[in-house]
Records
---
Amino acid sequence: MRYEDFRREYLADGLTRDMLDDCPIRQFECWLQQAVKSELEDPTAMVLATVDAEGRPWQRIVLMKGVSTEGFVFYTNFGSNKAREIAGESRVSLLFPWNELNRQVIVGGSARQMGRAESARYFLTRPRESQLAAWASQQSRPVSKRAILEAQVQSMREKFGRGEIPVPDFWGGYRVRPERVEFWQGGAHRLHDRFRYTRQRDDSWQIEQLQP
């Protein structure tokens, strides 16, 4: 199999400066709405890249659970690899790979823990089994077999019974405050359209077009 032969032309409409909103968050929300209307699977899925204490990068897919002018939100266990790496280096990168639309959005910024009250509001909307899993899983820690994890979930199920499940003190949200946001639109003959927003000192945004 010749992997170098896997290629296709990107024939979607191009992207020009006058098509962009002056605010990258509003532009992102526009593209996200289009991704949802196109019925993409997991349109809010994003690749989160972090760096560990030895400078080694790592990536994983998480679900974005909110976006505003303040930034992009996701939730995790504070003992997870991603949380421990963010504690040492808050600068992260996000990637939204909307391949079916010939688009991607890349975000660079800093991640900060959200307040407990805000995290609690989201936790209480999660399905009960997801709440139990948050209590049961020592995220990113080794486990010898799945049966142990299932037993931990059952133990939490018995502990809380039918009552309300409280928010774990080791679980919560992070908000990524963007400093750079790049919008990529695939173009014919590999002449892709790329525009990068860079945050200025006064919180305005500079927009520049990049060569593909």
Note: The beta strands are 45-51, 57-63, 66-68, 71-77, 91-98, 103-113, 171-185, 193-199, 205-210.
---
Amino acid sequence: MKKYGLALGSGGARGAAHVGLIEIINKREINIEVVTGSSAGAIVGAFFALYPKANLVRVFDRVIKKNIDIINSNFKILNKKITNFPKMIAGKSFLQNDFVYDIYKELYGRKRFSECKIKLGIVSYDLESGQEIEITEGYIIDAVMASSNVPGVFPPLRLGGMQHLDGGVLNPIPVNFAKKLGANYVIASDLSYQSNNNIKYDNGLDFLLSIDDNKNDLMNRYELKNANEIYKYPLTYSWVDFSAFNDIYIQSKSYIIEQLEREGIQS
């Protein structure tokens, strides 16, 4: 008997694609029993695990629109501060993560993993040990903060005696973690694919993150070997294009539907 798991990858604003995939999964009446997430995947996956029947696109669209000015303002500050690679590599973190905490508090409040309707696993990275951290208990907001803590952008988050950074550092798409939590059929959502290989970079951060995307692609291949269904999205949006949430969501849904139709699966 299939025990479905959903592994949601890292990718910033491109995480809107996860919302589209979950909507289609619900329409297909697939019963997800395990969800794992890294970074953007943790943000979407945690809310889905708490509220499987919620209208995710409505929830995330509302939260993003409410906070888009402060999101854009912070990333404009970030872009102004990054003028060359040495500053990016040797400098301190550029943003404080207080504004992110306030946004996450709207989504998760004080909910704990034990309150999830679906078994949840979130991935982060411990700066001191250099190890992947698999989080399955405690307050969800803490785990999501740890998993989405982009290196160089935000300072390490001290939690449980460790200094946490973005889960995508070591595991951009936690397929094997989903299997470890009991899933035997894993649907993977991979945000690393981009259709345009000639993307122009506005600043050093975008270029460094594109290099990081290439690294992630190699790690994804390892994880995706054990996935049973894989969805990729030929998106050209940057990881900070939160204003394009609805466009990313709509385009991603169309890609998923096209893939299912090619495979003869009713969406």
Note: Strands lie at 4-8, 32-38, 119-126, 131-135, 157-159, 162-165, 185-190, 229-232.
---
Amino acid sequence: MNFFNVPDEFKKNPELNEEDLNHLREWISKQPHLPIVTDELLVLFLHSCFYRLEPTKVTIESYFTLRTHSPELFTKRDTDVKSVLEAFKTISFSALPGSTPDGCKVIFIYAKRVEAELFVLSDFIKALSMVIDMLLMTSGTFNGLIIIYDMKGFSLSHVGRLGINMMKKYVYFLQDGLPARLQAIHTINTVPFIDMITSMTKPFMKKELSDKLYYHSAADSETIFDYIPKEIMPIEIGGSGQTLQNLSDDTFEKVKAMRKWFLEEENYRVDEQKRPGKPKTESDYFGVEGSFKTLNLD
């Protein structure tokens, strides 16, 4: 598996400089609770925050804290583990080849198996996190990340399997824990009960994230091409790219080839006992699950 290399990033990004990297290395050395952060990750963090140092530090802190306190999402990220394999068999993830005209990478997601009982939200998020990590480690920096969900086959039974606490972790992962610039999240074949899903996530979604959500109903299926060129989109949804089968198989093989990297990545976590001040717990970071139980889903 070919990972990106840091010297290429300096050629690609004039804003990237050694001085900022040194500043971050020094800052990390004074944070006893943080793990070692590789130069590859530092480059991704800096780029994702438009080379602003203070937001970069916040993102580094969020990234590692989120991964530490979400073991159900960020441990056993292993394609040899049955639950992970099942997630990839149930949900198709395709990292589309090429980019949009403005340099964004696209991940296309749809359900291969639509039975609600096969859908496990934590395994879905885990699989998506693996695909995003693969894309970042093989591509290096890119202008933005676009995620497209095809909601065909998604039913009210699926909504019943979402769970507020896990949805909250999902939102935090997307808005606070990505070393990438999240450009947009599109849903196509959007279900009529999408409002039920958004009302679950609204209480803890920042405006910056909610402004990036775009919904395309089945009747407006062509409107997605106003944002994403047909050339890179799958044939089955009216694009002129590859088949969904080819795209998802290729993506899965790339994730699988990174097995060793994923297993090693698990060691890079926050040591709460060494955190200056008070150690953080899961409820400090995500809030208490119980406080959302009376949420009105109307």
Note: The chain has 14 helices and five strands.
